[in-house]
Design goal:
single chain; alpha+beta; Aminopeptidase; 7-stranded mixed β-sheet; 6 helices
Length: 197
């Protein structure tokens, strides 16, 4: 998957695991979560650590079809991650309190974008927006009918910590053709992109 001449998208299934480890890092929320928050029950999540979560993502990459996301490269450096899968693969997604779609949660053609990680030092370079474009391409190529996201609207709050932006921001979804369909909270939107009839 290609973004532009500087940013390249690769399915996580095709990325060396050491590149995935580089993106998730050793500090901060990504290094402990490994995109398992919406997959684990509350009790399991309370006890989760990097030692628990990293092997789970690695197993999901090996065994899942479709793979659970895309990795961004700036030139040859792994710099970002976007989680994108069928919505039914995220049994704890209701924790966002923004998913209000009346369609069945087990519909395999409805996909969700749930997480972005961009490494410190590579932010504000368009990587998150390119990651979303890569997620759209991956979802479309695997037969998704609808892609939805749950981004933050930083313009609706005085201050947003960078750690809160892992859902993405409204403007990057708008730039990729998504439409806002609900505003469950003033600072959170439910956004959808129709991929096929």
């Amino acid at each position: 998957m290609e973004g532009n001449s500087n940013i390249r998208m690769v399915s996580i299934a095709d990325a060396p695991w050491q590149d995935v480890q580089t993106v998730f890092g050793t500090r901060g929320d990504p290094s402990s979560c490994w995109c398992q928050y919406f997959k684990m029950g509350k009790a399991d999540w309370r006890n989760a650590t990097r030692a628990t979560c990293e092997p789970l993502l690695e197993k999901q990459v090996r065994e899942s079809d479709p793979p659970p996301g895309v990795i961004a490269y700036l030139e040859n450096e792994p710099v970002g991650w976007c989680a994108v899968e069928p919505r039914r693969n995220y049994p704890e997604l209701h924790r966002t309190r923004v998913q209000s779609d009346p369609e069945p949660d087990d519909d395999p053609s409805i996909w969700s974008v749930t997480c972005f990680v961009v490494r410190v030092g590579f932010r504000k370079k368009g990587i998150a927006t390119a990651l979303l474009a890569g997620a759209i391409e991956q979802a479309r190529s695997h037969g998704a009918r609808v892609l939805e996201g749950y981004p933050v609207d930083p313009t609706a709050r005085e201050k947003v910590a960078s750690a809160e932006l892992y859902y993405g921001i409204v403007s990057q979804f708008t730039a990729n053709g998504f439409t806002e369909v609900a505003r469950p909270r003033p600072d959170r939107a439910l956004m959808r992109l129709e991929l096929s009839a």
